[in-house]
Specification:
Elements: H1 5-22, H2 28-34, H3 39-67, H4 69-89, H5 93-111, H6 114-121, H7 125-155, H8 160-163, H9 165-179, H10 193-216, H11 221-243, H12 257-274, H13 277-287, H14 292-316, H15 322-339, H16 353-376, H17 383-416, H18 423-427, H19 431-437, H20 440-479
Helix pairs in contact: 1-6, 1-7, 1-9, 3-4, 3-5, 3-10, 3-17, 4-5, 4-9, 7-14, 10-11, 10-17, 12-15, 12-16, 12-17, 12-20, 13-14, 13-20, 14-16, 15-16, 15-20, 16-17, 17-20
């Protein structure tokens, strides 16, 4: 059994970083009440982790190729653990957001090295087994995240969703230090630091502008400045990448419509399937009065459906062109989202079930195909870059989706509660606290208004998510060539079916 210790060391780290994408979802109302935090603060708590991970993923892989994958993996895990401690001890929303950003730095270092470390540790049949187990464990992470987060939040505190990472990190670091072998790419060139910085600024400024616009207004000077900064940084990224000999992203790949279509599909799929779930959790807990565990269980069908479907679908659809598979998955995600968009003031958790299951089936069908399809459209020398780009765009889809859906969600709730000074607090998950402070004669009427406002906010959010998924299906069908048949998934391209990273 000693030969499987490297797999255990790597799986522990990647399990943690993937769980931390979804584990915060059910803790948002408790964070908002304890810190306290506004809806924009909660958006950043979810968003900054995915955004940092996306911005640094490609650069972290290049750095690991140069200085050593084991070294970067261990450093990333230590950074992740220290940042988790800082998250748990954060006295306010600002420090929690900053610590989550540092968590994302550590997660990028770990995630960028996992496949290479497994490839160095195993060969032949053992490699296929190792990657299969790794994919299954990581796929389960997104399903376990809300439940684990709910249990820790409900019975201990939301701070324990971060503290739980510490003992796991200690074991993983000690084990990885002993059993992993170091590997490097002797042909690795210089790190594309200018590309990393300009890409990160472009993505971060755009996300900030989207979140800021909902609070300060879309024509406010600060909002417009952020949009301009994002545009300038994006132009700088394109110029820099076109002139460097070792780019973080080879812009020549963007001339390939199939590759562009697959990257867009990854971003749209992640946004449409996952980015609205945090707002659904706010509804479940602050309006329907579920505890964190109940909210986690209510959201579980999506992840379970994706996990159950992914394995059989991968075998049954192996010879189907990826354009068809990805499009079918996006159509199902869109249909599932739209099925969730008929909530009423008296709706309960079971109104979500059909849509979550349908969307989960769509995720299970399409997500495992993305990376293998991307690799089939690029030269072998660009395989690592292509896989990293797809993962990066999936994270960006999640980050941008949280920002955009948050704007729709909060704006609709405030429109449905005109003149109510507590509308902002209500949209951030403080409905029960506001009702408790309301005089009894007016409480029932306000409760009805809150139920109707939240249902309307979620309906708008899931409607836009569904239409986005359907538009993504059309774009994918138009851009991805029928002849670009993806190879059957190999161990180096297999991905967890339900993870958002």
């Amino acid at each position: 059994m000693r030969k499987w210790l490297p797999l255990l060391a790597i799986s522990l780290g990647t399990f943690m970083l993937l769980v931390d994408v979804t584990i915060v979802t059910v803790a948002l109302p408790d964070m908002a009440r304890d810190l306290p935090a506004s809806l924009s603060d909660l958006q950043w708590v979810m968003d900054i982790y995915a955004l940092t991970l996306a911005a640094l993923l490609l650069g972290s892989g290049s750095l690991a190729d140069r200085v050593g994958r084991k070294r970067i993996y261990l450093v990333g895990m230590v950074v992740f653990a220290l940042a988790s401690l800082a998250c748990a001890l954060a006295p306010g929303a600002g420090l929690l957001i900053a610590a989550r950003a540092v968590q994302g730095i550590g997660a990028a270092a770990m995630f960028a090295t996992t496949l290479a470390l497994l490839g160095a540790a195993y060969h032949g049949p053992d490699r296929a087994v190792a990657f299969g187990i790794w994919g299954a464990i990581n796929g389960a992470a997104s399903a376990i995240g809300p439940i684990l987060g709910g249990l820790l939040t409900e019975h201990l505190s939301w701070r324990w969703i971060f503290l739980i990472n510490l003992p796991v990190s200690v074991v993983a670091v000690a084990l990885a230090g002993r059993v992993l072998t170091e590997s490097r790419d002797p042909r690795a060139g210089r790190i594309d630091l200018p590309g990393m910085v300009s890409f990160g600024v472009a993505a971060g400024a755009l996300t900030w502008a989207l979140i800021r616009g909902a609070d300060a207004g879309w024509t406010a000077g600060s909002t417009l400045t952020l949009f301009v900064v994002s545009a300038v940084a994006l132009v700088a990224f394109v110029v820099l990448e076109s002139r460097t000999g070792r780019p973080m992203l080879d812009l020549a790949l963007l001339r390939n419509p199939s590759f562009v279509g697959i990257m867009l599909a990854g971003a749209v799929l992640t946004a449409a399937a996952f980015a609205y779930l945090g707002y659904t959790s706010l509804w479940l807990q602050s309006v329907l009065a579920f505890g964190p565990v109940g909210a986690g269980l209510a959201l579980l069908p999506l992840a379970v459906a994706a996990f159950v479907v992914a394995g059989p679908a991968g075998k049954l659809l192996a010879n189907v062109p990826p354009r068809i598979t990805i499009c079918a998955g996006l159509v199902l995600v869109g249909a599932g989202d739209l099925a969730e968009s008929f909530l009423g003031a008296d709706s309960g958790r079971w109104a979500l079930l059909p849509g979550l299951v349908i969307a989960g089936i769509g995720v299970g069908i399409s997500l495992p195909t993305l990376s293998s399809a991307a690799l089939a459209t690029v030269p072998p020398a660009r395989a690592g870059m292509a896989s990293g780009a797809v993962s990066t765009f999936r994270q960006l889809g999640f980050a941008f989706g949280i920002a955009i859906f948050g704007v729709l969600f909060s704006t609709r709730i405030e429109d449905r509660l005109p003149g109510n000074p507590a509308a902002g607090a209500i949209s951030s998950g403080q409905a029960q606290a506001i009702l408790a402070q309301t005089p009894p004669p007016a409480r029932a009427g306000l409760s009805d208004q809150i139920h109707a406002a939240f249902a309307s906010g979620l309906n708008l959010t899931t409607t836009i998510a569904g239409l986005l998924a359907l538009a993504g299906a059309v774009l994918t069908f138009a851009l991805v060539r029928q002849s670009a048949t993806a190879h059957p998934q190999t161990p180096t391209t297999a991905e967890p079916a339900t993870a958002t990273t």
